[in-house]
Amino acid sequence: MSDVNVFIKQKLFSSVIPMPHHNAFSAMSYKKIESIIDSTSDLYRNNYKAFRTVLTGYYERLNETVNHSNTKAIEKHKQRGKLLARERVNLLIDEGTPFFELSTMAAIDQYKNNFPSAGIITGIGLINKKPAVIVANDATVKGGTYIRETIKKHIRAQEIAAQNHLPCVYLVDSGGIFLPQQAEVFPDRFDFGRIFFNQARLSASGIPQISVVMGSCTAGGAYIPAMSDETIIVRNQGTIFIGGPPLVKAATGEEVTAEELGGGEVHTQISGVADYLAENDADALQICRNIFETLNSKEIEQLSDNIREPVYDGEELYGLIPDDLKKNINPYELIARIADASAFHEFKKEYGKTLVTGFIKLYGKEVGVIANNGFLNSESSLKGAHFIELCEFRSIPLLFLQNITGFIVGKTHEHKGIARDGAKLIHAVSNARVPKITLVFGGSFGAGNYAMSGRAFEPNFLLMWPNSKISVMGGSQAQQVLEAIGARESGLIEQFEKESMLYFSTSRLWDDGIIDPKDTRKVLGLLFSVTEPKPDKENKFGIFRM
Length: 546
Ligand code: COA
Prior knowledge:
binds coenzyme A; 2 domains; globular; 2-enoyl-CoA Hydratase, Chain A, domain 1; 21 helices; 8-stranded mixed beta sheet; alpha/beta
């Protein structure tokens, strides 16, 4: 596979994934799932081949994004003695440990692809064994300026920090707002200003905010280091000012160089806006690592020796993924490739079979799994709500495995109260405060997206497989609905097709990123290891209509 693949998969996932709260695996209450995959069947082989093509396409796009071709900007950047954004991240985190990059393909297929990764790298890595959220501007993408998706990505990283109580490091190298887009990124509630509001709130809740100024930090951007708990600045490279030299000249006539106005020496010796003066990028990142030694934030624990890997190969999942999302994907096969020892303690097995619920150990940690196995009907909705309550009362985190065409429709089901039973599930999902991670492994359509902890339900993380799609319904159904009410809309099928595509979703940050199915267990293990236990308050649900 490509270089980027090697970078992402080896560098990011090569090491042992540490997990807190590990328990020894008890095989007694868990039964090994017996896989029924026939890897010699034509169906399996055809699916496998078709999915490999999808996967190759995904890795090609990932490669293009990470190794973007802004060669002139990259050369200029390197000539200034600066490291690239991902190189900075690599140097900051503990050597040989994983970095989980979020939403790498943000802004893809928008803005003529001039904003790879939306010009910002965000993710989770370990700094002195302490998990942290890292936000790094990519100055080789339009001077590291912020378009709508850059802001969304930055704010999403801060949300993750808040929800999982993780310190934040900002590797700042940015010209601030991308001025041609100012109306879309400046004034609204979740626009640029939200970044600083979040910093103040995060700091107040005891979540450390550390800035490393490695380039420009202009106008509003100046508040990123200024609002941080501690700030490092690189000599002859980092600058912080509310108005740059051209603006100062225009406003006051004063002629001043960037360094004189707001360089490293000015801010560490005169203004006090920064606290540490670093000699270069590597020195600055080392100072940041030293600061982490003084932080009182949680450390990651080492894995227990008792962890048993699944008995089935994760790559076999490729052969399960059909080319048509209307065909079901057997969730037991997926659970068998996520769970320790492929073992599952199933709950309410014979009831509401279109939803599979039960407990697994994931790197020794108890996790409640809710997986779609067809339409949601009354029974499966009730079963899901019941299971969520169990996990909430027992403080067990939840994993939603989402592949859902929606709730079942029709007179019988409406009379039976599918809306009321579905509402119970949505109530339970909304009010459960245990950590939740959602993986879309096929379709995510209609209210099924809500009931299975879609983005609006604030799961700690939401990930997609490369075959996944999200939309309110399929294009042809939408066309039929409109025709049935007498409205004619041309091109609706094509529009739905385009808008439900994986890249459309990930470009707009409806998810936190795309993962290769074979990495599912490791990624989930890593992400659950950084979630916080449920807040120590009484369990509280709303009114369930009976
Ligand atoms: N809005 C829109 N585009 C911007 C921009 C901004 N704020 N800042 C930089 N750019 C663009 C440049 O036009 C250039 O585009 P191109 O590659 O299509 O030619 C690209 O980003 C790189 O800028 P450049 O000046 O060539 O790079 P640099 O590394 O020498 O300097 C900055 C980068 C950010 C220091 C410098 O561009 C700058 O000072 N920008 C203005 C910052 C500002 O005043 N922001 C206020 C917004 S709140």
